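Render this sequence as a predicted structure.
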Amino acid sequence: MLLAAALAFSLAAHAQDYPSKPIKIIVPTAPGAVSDNLARILAEMLREKWDQPVIVENRAGAAGNIGAEAVFRAAPDGYTLLFAVQPTLVVNKSLYARLAYDPDAFVPISVVAAATIVLVVHPKVAAEGVQQLIALARANPDRLNYASAGSGSTQHLTSELFKSRAGVKIVHVPYKGNPAAVVDLLGGRVDMMFAEISTALPHIRAGKLRALAIANEKRSPVLPEIPTVSELLPGFAVAPWWGMVAPPRTPSAIAEKISSAVAEVLRQPEVAKRLLDMGSIEAIGNSPAEMALFMRQERERWGNLIRAIGATAD
């Protein structure tokens, strides 16, 4: 009992003093990616709040698994954190036969932000809306195709969810990354794609792509005239998101302290505007408990879909 009391007192004191040295945020993508840019905005604001260095370190590769493993093996003291997009945290466990880390064991801190994605088609596709696209696909099974950044990517899983809900057969054309997929979509070599609005918007405005629907729960303020998929297929809602987690066994008091700071930073109008300017990215900043519940729901939803379609990334 004395040992337990001493340990509890030590953890509480550690959380009270946190942070007392530099913090490292590992981002499992290359510099310049949206995840990297978001992490650097967060690091900049946390640095000002805490008056401690907050360093962003990029460890790209293996669909985020390399960076995630590094954080998984780090000391559980709150000084090494992972900032990652949803596949690393809730999808890869269902896609890969073997992982060197357990995504479920990370200590949740906060869902930081969510992006808007839009269903776009090349202008050659004879559909002005989702209802027409579904009718076209049903009349021509396996004749239409869609691009994605690769098996297990957000575009892939969102498209498969759309196919399942709409009862259509559309062929998957995976690419090695988002840029190559967009290039072939613009060239008419593929028919459609669920793309982040920040990527698609310039091409939509130039008339090179046609926007049919927003995949998120609500319409986008940058394309208010475009309906959501859920207006035709109730309950369909997909929003790529970014979250921050800590190594397993990180004390909850430290996770709560970091989460509170992240939420405070995200409430600043300047930060919210910077995120919106990056491409209609919505600041969230929820609590560890809220993130834990949300991640369980996301794991179940995408895990069930992955098993149903037999997708793998090995």
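Summary. The domain at 117-231 is CATH 3.40.190.10 (D-Maltodextrin-Binding Protein; domain 2). The first strand starts at residue 23 and ends at 27.
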